[in-house]
Write a structure and sequence with these properties.
Ribonuclease iii, N-terminal Endonuclease Domain, Chain A, three-stranded antiparallel sheet, about 60% helix
Length: about 240
């Protein structure tokens, strides 16, 4: 069985502006691990190892980009710029724009529950494609140019619009200023299989629950909880 018939390779090459050498490598980049459970005759791995490599490449290249282009900014701000650019939502937006979701191999159950549009799956796919680009080309400049077109273009707006100030940092500043206390995040519950967990996390001040956040990772759920807590505190203060 040909598992790559669903991929228009010419279209994909035009999107990433790269002539693919090893199609099987890129097929792996679009393989969600749920697909392996339902297709025993599929002799390939999931994209998790490529995602691991792509994440490391991404961290290096965006750090280099920020270091070279924001020479007057301190390390702390550069860290915030980086976090805002490579967070799950940001990477998922790029995957959506590139329409990577339609190339994914996943289980029937995953697809029926909206897996092709699921934020963390799309973000992971963006990183796995980057990993495949690096291995196939053996050229970091290919990866650098790919990211400049498909991610780094948004950095200036993130900085200009103060979008790098994440909700957790803003909440901590507010609670320390108003109450001389630091917010504490606790897992209320986690549900679902390992590949598709949903976390509910509460944010507390002096043991008082301010808000709950739900997300596909602890970090995402904490951000949501912080966003909701900021809304609640602003209402009380104002």
């Amino acid at each position: 069985m040909n598992f790559d018939n669903h991929i228009d390779w010419k279209e994909l090459e035009e999107k990433i502006e790269y002539k693919i050498g090893d199609k099987n490598l890129f097929l792996k980049a679009f393989t969600h691990r749920s697909f392996l459970n339902e297709n025993q005759d599929y002799h390939n791995n999931s994209n998790e190892r490529l995602e691991f490599l792509g994440d490391a490449i991404l961290q290096f290249l965006i750090s280099e980009q920020l270091f070279n282009n924001y020479s007057n900014e301190p390390e702390g701000k550069l860290t915030n710029f980086r976090a805002a650019t490579v967070n799950t939502t940001s990477l998922a937006q790029e995957s959506l724009r590139l329409d990577f979701g339609k190339y994914l191999l996943m289980s029937i159950g995953e697809e029926q529950t909206g897996g092709r549009m699921r934020e963390y799956i799309l973000a992971n796919t963006f990183e796995s494609v980057l990993g495949a680009l690096y291995i196939d080309s053996n050229d970091i400049n290919i990866c650098r140019n790919y990211l400049k077109k498909n991610l780094f273009y948004k950095i200036d707006d993130i900085v200009k619009n103060n979008e790098y100030r994440d909700s957790k940092s803003s909440l901590q500043e507010m609670t320390q200023e108003k109450f001389s206390l630091t917010p504490v995040y606790k897992i209320i519950k986690s549900e679902g299989p390992d590949h598709d967990k949903t976390f509910t996390i509460g944010v507390y001040i002096n043991s008082e629950l301010l808000a709950k956040g739900v997300g596909p990772s602890k970090q995402k759920a904490e951000q949501v909880a912080a966003e909701l807590a900021l809304i609640q505190l602003n209402k009380k203060i104002n």
